[in-house]
């Protein structure tokens, strides 16, 4: 398990975790959690997948969990931004690993 920083196309840095497959990788799973739910909630499931040969990436959307920076009052984020920008950054990371398929 290792921490990863994802850079969204608007420059916002998202915190993610790569759970490395044990043994040969059977592929990737991108865990795009429920909005507002920190990635740590999915760690047990991600570890289970990794122990069964699947690389897993979990991440926190901007303003959530480890991707939260400072005060949320006036913070600009919504479902569309999370889906189009944050989720895209996570998917780009997974696809860049070269062993992922959509």
Structure, explained:
There is one protein chain. The protein is of the alpha+beta class. The chain is built from two helices and four strands. The chain has a four-stranded mixed beta sheet. The relative contact order is 0.24. The model has no long low-confidence stretch (mean pLDDT 88).
Keywords:
26% helix, four-stranded mixed β-sheet, 102 residues, alpha+beta, 2 helices, single chain
Give me the secondary-structure topology.
Layout: E1 2-7, E2 13-19, E3 28-31, H1 43-51, E4 55-59, H2 79-96
Parallel strand pairs: 3-4
Antiparallel strand pairs: 1-2, 2-4
Strand order of the largest sheet: 1-2-4-3
The whole-angstrom Rg is 13 Å
Q: Count of helical segments? A: 2
The end-to-end span amounts to 23 Å
**How much helix is in the residues?**
25-40%
Major sheet details:
4 strands, mixed
Quaternary structure annotation = single chain
- Listing every helix as H and every strand as E from the N terminus to the C terminus, the arrangement reads EEEHEH
Can you give the mean pLDDT? 88
Strand content: 15-25%
In terms of per-residue confidence, which ranges show pLDDT below 50 for 5 or more consecutive residues?
none
Structural class: alpha+beta
Count of β-strands: 4
Q: Give the overall shape, derived from the CA principal axes.
A: globular
């Amino acid at each position: 398990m290792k921490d990863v920083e994802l850079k969204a196309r608007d420059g916002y840095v998202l915190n993610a975790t790569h759970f490395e497959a044990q043994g040969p990788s059977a592929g990737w799973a991108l865990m795009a959690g429920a909005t507002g739910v920190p990635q740590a909630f999915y760690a047990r499931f991600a570890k289970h997948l990794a122990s069964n040969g699947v690389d897993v990436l979990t991440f926190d959307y901007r303003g959530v969990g480890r991707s939260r920076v400072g005060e949320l009052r006036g913070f600009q984020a919504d479902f569309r931004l999370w889906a189009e920008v944050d989720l895209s950054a996570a998917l780009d990371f997974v696809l860049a690993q070269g062993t992922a398929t959509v």
